Amino acid sequence: RIALENLVLQGSPNANGGGVGVIVTPRAANDSAIALASWARLLKLDAFDATTVRSFVETNRGKAPEGFITP
Q1: Lowest-pLDDT range of 9-13, 47-51, 65-69
Q2: CB 53 within 8 A of CB 41
Q3: How would you class 20 by CB atoms within 10 Å of its CB: exposed for 0-12, middle for 13-18, buried for 19 or more?
Q4: pTM of the full predicted structure?
Q5: Strand partners of residue 45
Q6: Distance CA 35, CA 46 (A)
Q7: Tens digits of per-residue pLDDT, 15-38?
Q8: Contact 62/41 with Cβ under 8 angstroms?
Q9: What does residue 57 show for φ and ψ, rounded to 5 degrees?
Q10: Which of 15, 34, 38, 71 is geometrically suited to a Cys-Cys bond with 45, CB 3.0 to 4.6 A?
Protein backbone atom coordinates (compact mmCIF):
# COMPACT_ATOMS: atom_id res chain seq x y z
CA ARG A 1 0.00 0.00 0.00
CA ILE A 2 1.34 3.41 -0.92
CA ALA A 3 1.42 5.93 1.93
CA LEU A 4 -0.58 9.06 1.17
CA GLU A 5 2.23 11.26 2.42
CA ASN A 6 4.36 9.93 -0.46
CA LEU A 7 1.80 11.22 -2.96
CA VAL A 8 1.85 14.87 -1.89
CA LEU A 9 3.22 17.20 -4.53
CA GLN A 10 6.31 18.94 -3.17
CA GLY A 11 7.17 22.60 -3.52
CA SER A 12 5.37 25.86 -3.03
CA PRO A 13 2.34 26.79 -5.11
CA ASN A 14 3.32 28.30 -8.44
CA ALA A 15 1.53 30.67 -10.80
CA ASN A 16 -0.67 27.78 -11.94
CA GLY A 17 -1.86 27.01 -8.43
CA GLY A 18 0.69 24.32 -7.50
CA GLY A 19 -1.11 21.64 -5.51
CA VAL A 20 -4.19 23.80 -4.90
CA GLY A 21 -7.33 21.89 -5.84
CA VAL A 22 -5.53 18.53 -5.80
CA ILE A 23 -7.18 15.86 -3.65
CA VAL A 24 -5.30 12.75 -2.56
CA THR A 25 -7.29 9.91 -1.03
CA PRO A 26 -7.12 6.11 -0.79
CA ARG A 27 -9.67 4.10 -2.80
CA ALA A 28 -9.58 0.32 -2.51
CA ALA A 29 -11.81 -0.11 -5.59
CA ASN A 30 -9.12 1.18 -7.98
CA ASP A 31 -7.51 -1.40 -10.25
CA SER A 32 -4.14 0.39 -10.16
CA ALA A 33 -1.89 1.58 -7.34
CA ILE A 34 -2.47 5.22 -8.31
CA ALA A 35 -5.19 6.78 -10.46
CA LEU A 36 -5.12 10.44 -11.45
CA ALA A 37 -8.49 11.79 -12.57
CA SER A 38 -9.48 15.12 -14.06
CA TRP A 39 -13.00 15.18 -15.46
CA ALA A 40 -12.89 12.84 -18.51
CA ARG A 41 -9.15 12.20 -18.17
CA LEU A 42 -7.69 9.23 -16.30
CA LEU A 43 -4.07 8.21 -15.85
CA LYS A 44 -3.26 4.94 -14.07
CA LEU A 45 0.17 4.39 -12.52
CA ASP A 46 1.71 1.33 -10.88
CA ALA A 47 4.12 3.49 -8.86
CA PHE A 48 4.38 7.12 -7.80
CA ASP A 49 6.37 9.34 -10.17
CA ALA A 50 6.43 13.00 -9.11
CA THR A 51 7.26 14.26 -12.61
CA THR A 52 4.36 12.37 -14.20
CA VAL A 53 1.91 13.48 -11.49
CA ARG A 54 3.01 17.11 -11.73
CA SER A 55 2.74 17.01 -15.54
CA PHE A 56 -0.79 15.55 -15.37
CA VAL A 57 -1.90 18.25 -12.91
CA GLU A 58 -0.32 21.09 -14.92
CA THR A 59 -1.67 19.78 -18.24
CA ASN A 60 -5.23 19.41 -16.96
CA ARG A 61 -5.48 22.46 -14.68
CA GLY A 62 -8.21 24.78 -15.96
CA LYS A 63 -9.75 22.12 -18.25
CA ALA A 64 -12.93 21.79 -16.16
CA PRO A 65 -16.24 22.77 -17.78
CA GLU A 66 -15.97 26.10 -15.95
CA GLY A 67 -12.72 26.77 -17.84
CA PHE A 68 -10.85 28.60 -15.10
CA ILE A 69 -8.24 27.79 -12.46
CA THR A 70 -9.61 27.85 -8.93
CA PRO A 71 -7.66 29.99 -6.46
Answers
A1: 9-13
A2: no
A3: middle
A4: 0.66
A5: 34
A6: 9
A7: 455 556 777 777 889 999 889 998
A8: no
A9: -60, -50
A10: 34
